[in-house]
Amino acid sequence: MIHEGRAWVFGDNVNTDLIIPGKYLDNYDPAHLASHAMEGISKDFAANVKSGDIIVAGHNFGCGSSREQAVIALKHAEVGLVVAKSFARIFYRNAINLGMLAITSPDAAEVIRDGDIVVVDIGALSLSAIDGKRRAKLEAIPRRAQEILDSGGLVPYIKHKLKEQGKI
User: Fold this and answer.
1) Where residue 1 falls among pLDDT bands split at 50, 70, 90?
2) Which domain holds residue 96?
3) For residue 81, is it within any domain?
4) What is the pLDDT of residues 135-148, one digit of tens each?
5) Does the residue 52 lie in any domain?
6) pTM of the model
7) Is residue 167 one of the residues assigned to a domain?
8) Quick check: 44 and 35 in contact, CB under 8 A?
9) CATH number of the domain enclosing 96
C-alpha cells in the first residue's frame, strides 16, 4: 500500500490535548472534532490539511489522556496516517481500533521536513521525500494490528470474526 501527501512534522510528546483541545469535547461530532484537529499545536492545521496528508512526529505521540476523540479528529480531518518515533500505548491502540494507520519510524522526524511531499510505501517499509533524496525506514506493523486495520477497525474485525464462526 502506498500513501502520498504533505508531511506535517511535529516534535516529541504531542499530547491528546494538543491534538484535540479539551475545550472542544463538548461536541463529539467527528466533523466538529476534525475542524479543531491539532489546534493546540498548529492553528493552520485544520484549515489546511488535505485528504491523505501525513503526520510525522517524534517520541510519544498521543500521550496524555486516553481520549479516542484525538484519533477521531485526525481520521475525520482525513489524515492518511501518522508516522512517529514512538506512540503512547493508548493512542496507538485507539488508532488501530478505529482503523487509522499509525506506524513507527526511528528516523522519519529527523529526515522529513514540514511541508515535504512524501511517499509512504508500507510494503517496502519506507517513507521518502518525493524527490527520493531523503528516506526513512518504517517498522513493520504487527500482524494482528494489520488484520484489524484491513477490516476497518476493531468493531468490523470482530463482526467479521463472529460471522466466520457463525455466531451472527
Assistant:
1) confident
2) 2-140
3) yes
4) 999 999 999 999 99
5) yes
6) 0.94
7) no
8) no
9) 3.20.19.10
